[in-house]
Design brief:
The protein is mostly helical. The two termini are 44 Å apart.
Length: 183
């Protein structure tokens, strides 16, 4: 659903836009739109056009096999659908289950040091991911308040994960150091 919102948002924000131009925007924003791959993007453009949310027109003179490029524009139905999706995404809240909760329960089957070691590896991976996300956003201040808000949300979630991993490691270290220190 958020990928559909992304496509409709790009088309609505940019006016007539080609799939190639949308792909360039996606690539330029790195982590923010990383889950929208090129084949999926073109599939969504075709589907949204078939559903009458987008109007397509061909423009000649483009490089490539067809010698033309397709430009997409939001229809009135597309504007309504965009607003429905936007409302839904902004007001929907759900917890994220990545599987880590289940995996942590089964760390009890390992030695304490092996469990702590796995969490430390996870911490390194998440800290590296945070660096990549922060670098991908670059100087987000130049992109306006909404881009800053999006970057802040993504980084806050990653920071929360880092904080949780550090607390989990500390808890396991305390618990395994001395049974008397258990709370």
């Amino acid at each position: 659903m958020h990928k559909e919102l992304l496509i409709l948002g790009f088309v609505g924000d940019s006016g007539p836009i080609s799939g190639y131009d949308i792909h360039r925007i996606v690539r330029a924003h790195g982590e923010l739109f990383a889950d929208l791959k090129r084949p999926n993007m073109y599939y969504l453009l075709e589907r949204l056009a078939a559903e009458k949310y987008l109007r397509v027109r061909a423009e000649s003179g483009a490089r490539g096999r067809r010698g033309e490029r397709l430009l997409y524009v939001l229809t009135a139905a597309g504007k309504r659908r965009f607003r429905e999706l936007l409302d839904s995404e902004v007001t929907r809240f759900g917890t994220v289950h990545t599987g880590i909760e289940v995996a942590v329960i089964f760390l009890a089957q390992l030695t304490p040091s092996a469990g702590i070691s796995l969490l430390q590896k996870r911490l390194q991976i998440v800290e590296l991911h945070r660096k990549r996300v922060a670098a991908a956003f670059g100087d987000v201040g130049k992109r306006g308040p909404h881009a800053r808000i999006a970057a802040d949300h993504m980084l806050t979630l990653v920071d929360a994960e880092i904080g949780w991993i550090k607390r989990a490691i500390a808890t396991l270290q305390i618990e395994t150091a001395s049974p008397d220190k258990r709370r």
